[in-house]
Known about the structure:
This protein is of the alpha+beta class. Helices cover 17% and strands 51% of the residues. Strand 7 and strand 8 form a beta hairpin. The chain is elongated, with a radius of gyration of 38 Å. The chain starts with a strand and ends with a helix.
Amino acid sequence: LYGKSGDILPISGTQATLRIDDFRIIMAGKMQVSDYVTTATVLDDTGAVADSAEIEVNHPLDHDGTSIFQSSYYLAEDEFEWARIMVSAPDSKVPAVLTLKEGTAQPVPGTELAVSPGRFLPDFRMTESGPRSVSGNMNNPALEIILDGPGGRTSGWTFLLFPKFGTKFDRLDSVVFQDIEPVYYTGLEMSRNPGASLFMAGMILGAAGLLLLYLFDYRVVHGSIDGAGLVVTGVTARWKVAFREQLDGMEKEIGEAVEKEGAT
């Protein structure tokens, strides 16, 4: 299941739910992820807190027979908390740094223009059907900039990692994409095994059976007797020498019994 901060996810097979309190990515270096951690709370059927933990790779949350694992994450296309751009207007000596949020426009100081954010693509690619994100990773973050003013509306793309390749706006000297806080969705895998204890008991009994088979070498011996003599045969076992000795012993005991029976 995937969810972002504040989402409540069902826990399969129970009346409980899982609330995503926080999700953070731990970076080892530029664009290199070392770990990702979900802070989550288990709520019972009344909404009361039943359990809570930080879930990370190889450290699941175990609750009432259900194991909740950190599996993956992805960035949502067209969703972000805020984006920061630097705008240079022809009549302004100092560039303006603006923080943009979805659905709102910011005036450009010293002008009659306003900028607002459009689409956000974490991994921008231009395809035959137009711009789209080819993955949920920040490989090529791009933000669409919408410019409104007396001359009408224009729009273009700016790139976080490649600022020189952004759209050139006629009414502005430059628009530089500086930073963004995307919306991250955590991917959680929920596993429930109500027969775990039965499975473990079966494993233990199976291991004990194999041990007994190893310690006790069971064999089937065939034989026949007639006027000409006695024949005893057996299947070759793991310990051939020991089996040979056992056959010799059986032959001796049967011979002695036959002689004794003949004497009586």
